[in-house]
Amino acid sequence: MKQDIRDGHVARVARDGFTIVEDAIEPALVDARLERERDAKPAMNGFEGHKTVRIYNLLAFGAPFASVPVHENVLPVIEGVLDAGCLISSLSSITIDPGETAQPIHADDMVIPLEKPHRPIVCNSMWALTDFTDENGATRLVPGSHKKPSPDYGGTYETIPGAMKKGSVLIWDGSLWHGGGANRTNTRRTGIAMNYCAGFIRQQENQQLGLSPALVKLFSPRLQELVGYGVYQGLIGHIDKKSPAQLLNGGGEFQSIWNRT
């Protein structure tokens, strides 16, 4: 991604709380499917939905999902909103089936006990594997709400649909008020939720236990960092002044914050 394009997306997230990267995903990722293999069923609760199928911990399934967190059309924007020390918080698929009602409006960082507004500590993305429309459940957004306190969970708010074509990616500040839309069509709305957090925040999905070390060894160095085998600012996450990646891979270099000074 060119620097000026990246900077434009980062600026829109800062101003509006969200941005859409059009035509971001190559066909191999757009066509990724797991529901049939995993026999996934709706969670049957008010947040995850009664007609919404979710599959969590997608990195555990290998290709093509290992290419999602480090995608060149998305990760630079995330790093611009957070910083290069960001982590994968969770990676899942979300399919909204016909007849699903709208998800309650919420902010993704509501459970973190910090006063708002604050600097971005969560930055999430929704990858459109089908067209996202107002009718089929496109994410509902409250522009500019990332600069306000958290919403009343499930409250009624004026929203706009995050409509986008198949292959596009919606990126938003985790403080933005939003929720999945109602599917009033007879076709499914399918997306990948690729979520990130700042390197000093606990991840939503426990990547270190959710992914086997044998699998993580096969990841690129950057993906190893993103799942938590790096050290934030040379301090947070070290093991006896060593990087977790050093212990995982049996070698490598790391300089702690104390050695840098």
User: How does the major sheet shape up?
Assistant: 6 strands, antiparallel
Note the total helix count: 9
What structural class is derived from the secondary structure elements? Answer: alpha+beta
Order of helices and strands: HEHHEHEEEEEEEHHHHH
Counted beta strands = 9
Radius of gyration: 18 Å
Give the DSSP E fraction (strand runs of 2 or more residues): 15-25%
Task: Explain what this protein looks like in three dimensions.
- This protein has 261 residues and is α+β, with helices and mostly antiparallel strands.
- It is built from nine helices and nine strands.
- It has a six-stranded antiparallel beta sheet. A three-stranded antiparallel beta sheet has the order 6-5-8, with no helix packed on it.
Task: Break the fold down into its secondary structure elements and pairings.
Elements: H1 3-16, E1 18-21, H2 27-30, H3 35-38, E2 52-55, H4 75-81, E3 87-96, E4 122-128, E5 140-141, E6 160-161, E7 169-173, E8 178-179, E9 189-197, H5 207-210, H6 213-216, H7 221-229, H8 244-249, H9 257-260
Helix pairs in contact: 1-4
Summary keywords:
261 residues, alpha+beta, 9 helices, 9 strands
Give a concise summary.
By secondary structure, this protein is an alpha+beta fold.
